[in-house]
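User: quick one, fold this
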Amino acid sequence: MEIFKSNKIYNFMGSRLPFLGLSSLLVIASLVLLLVKGLNFGIDFEGGTIVQAKYEQKAPISQIREILKETKYSNASITEFGSPDEIVIRITGSSSNIANDIGDEMHQILKPTGNFEVRRVDIVGPKVGGELREKGIMALVLSLIVILVYVSYRFEWRFAVASILALTHDIIIALGAISLFNVEVNLDILAAILTILGYSLNDTIIVFDRIREGVQTSKEEELEKVVNESVSKTLSRTTLTSLTTFFVVVTLYLFGGEIINGFAFTMLVGVVVGTYSSIFIAASFLVQLKFSIKDFRNKEADKLKRQKEKDKMRAMYEQGTM
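Assistant:
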C-alpha cells in the first residue's frame, strides 16, 4: 500500500531551514517550560504513599477531597482507578510522617463517604525516589551513548551525531509537553520516553540506511538531491507505520483509563514528533554537518578494493600458490 507515489521526489531539503527554525522554537519553548515550570514528579521519584480503595457504590470523589483538605493529607490527589467505584489516593512527601496503619486511618477519616475497603497501600521513601530519578536519568544518558556508538559503527560519525541531535530534539519536546500539561512524571513516563527513543531511532535508521544506499547507487553528486530521493522513497512506509502506532496509542489514551493516560499521552507526543523529526529533521542535520558524498564514495571504494585484495590472497593461499 502506498500513500505517496514512490517515483515522485519531494523537495524536503529545500524547506529544511524553516523546519529547523520551527524545531528550534519548539526546543527553546520546551527548555523554558522545564526551567520555569519544571516537571511534576510523582511518588515514584519524590516519595510518598499510594492508597487504593474500592467502594460499594460510586466513589464520592468531591466529598473525599473536601474531607482530606481538613486533615494532614490536604496535599493528596484523588483519581478514579479503572471504574467509578474505585479510587487511588496519592499523598506526596516523606513517608516518615506517615503512620504504618494509614489504611486503618483512611477508614476512620473517610467513614462518612460510604462503605469501602482499602485494597493497596504502597509507600515510597524519598531516598528510594531520589535513587529512581537518578537511575532514570542515567538510563537516558546511557541509551544516547550506546546509540551514538552503534550508529557510528554502522554508518559514519556524521550520521551518529545527526541521529543523537534528532533524538535529543524529540525528548526535549516530549518533556516540554509533559511540563506544559502538568503530567505526573513516574516510572510509566520514563518507560514512555525510552520507548520514544527506540521508536524514533528505528525510523531514523531506516531513513539513513536508504540515504546511504542512495549515496552508493545514485548518480547525483549533491547530497540534498540524494536525501530528497531517499526520504521520498521511505515516506509511505514511515507514514503508514506512524499512523498505525498513532491510532493504537490514541485508543489507549481514550479508553485505557487514568492509570495509563500519562504513558499514552507521552507516546502520542513522541510518535508525532518522532515521525516529524525522521522525515524533516534528522536528514537536515546530516546536510548541516556537511556530509561529503565524494569522500564517502572514495572510502567505500577503498574498502571494496581492500576486500578484493584479501579475497585474492585467500584464494591464492587455498590453491597453494603462496
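User: anything notable?
Assistant: Residues 223-255 form the longest helix (33 residues).
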